[in-house]
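Batch job 17 of 40 flagged for manual review because the log was empty.
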Amino acid sequence: MENKMQSKIPLSKAIAAGDIQTKLSIPFMGLGIFLKGQKIKGCLIFLLEVAFVLYMATSGGYALSMLPSLGNSAQQKVWNEAKQIYEYSAGDNSQLILLSGIVTCFVIVGFILLWIMQIKQAYRLQLQKENNVHVKTFAEDIRSLFDENLHITLMSLPCIGILVFNIVPLVYMISMAFTSYSKEDNHLQLFGWNGLVQFQRVLNFGGNIGRQFWHVLAWTVVWALVATFLNYVMGMILAMIINRKETKAKGFWRFCFVLSIAVPQFVSLMIMNIMLQPSGAINVLLQNHGLISGPLPFFTDAMWARVTIILINLWVGIPYTMLQVTGILQNIPSELYEAARMDGAGPVKIFMKITLPYMLFVTTPYLITSFVGNINNFNVIYLLSGGGPTYVGDTAGQTDLLVTWLYKLTIDQQYYNLGAVIGILTFVILTVVTLVTYRRSKSYKNEEAFM
């Protein structure tokens, strides 16, 4: 019977098998708990119901009623005859209406969950009384939050933080993709729902926005693959060279390469941007020595800009991989190498059969996170080329990634609905690629292979 009381109780069973006191919890939250001895908890739950009713009767109900339209009254200019001036009526603010409506929906969901939980708790207390089991007092419930239920105490604040700072803004951003919220037709204050119109614009090959999206997506994938592959391979080669027994002063060489990490990336990239300008130090130096007749188009030509960004990213990214790989190389059992040499294996075969498989097995999660990080590598692109060069009439430059284009669409050009669509598509692409790649990797399928 004790296991029955501790197990999960279906709501339908709690309502059907509950006594009159338990059933009173259906219209009056906390009443069943109050009548069964937990008076303070019952009162607190009832106060939450009262607070919910008051909220819905005041601002919550209005926010929910305005959610389908997102507002109807636009800002208007009205002539004040007495003051002989024009005055502006505020009008509806669709941003606040949308946010308030979403928050109200979350409040309703939370209220429903609390309603279900308190009915189940009332039925659980009913079973305890029927079987002469001790019913905890409010003080005992509080003490349990620091003992057997400590996990609830520790996880409450992080879960609230995730809800407030992650989930609610995410739902708000997703909702924005289905609206007309942009500077087009002056829909920055008052806008409405327009369904999948923005998704059609983005995914349409023939449209201007669609053409730019597929172009930016292709470059984003190429950039992420090339940057991840080159950083990984060259970082691994560098780590293996430094890690050789013949290499002297290993600590010194590692220190030299780690300097690029020690210097803030913002500073490094801004300096490189200044040096590679048409009138920057590198072009001036090359022209003064007669090596070039005119400035090299590091950031004014699309191909030059892409190659330049990839090379500078190597300078920034290789040391990270070197540090990751160094620790892994030092943990590969030396017995494997000795046995391979005794069998007559050469350096190349040892690398292909021992080092590389071990490295790939251990670093697959790192490769996935590096790929995702490069897709979202805002700093390198924005601080070096600013996404340019940009053709006339386009909102995306030739080196823009999805994340930098999203920034331009929202912050610079106020196409908030298009930016939300780009954000959703980026999230979907990254989620699918990450999950599929990791679940198909040996790191996931055979966790104990190298243990």
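Reviewer: the log was empty due to a logging misconfiguration, but the result itself is present. The beta strands are 76-80, 85-89. Unflagging and moving on to job 18.
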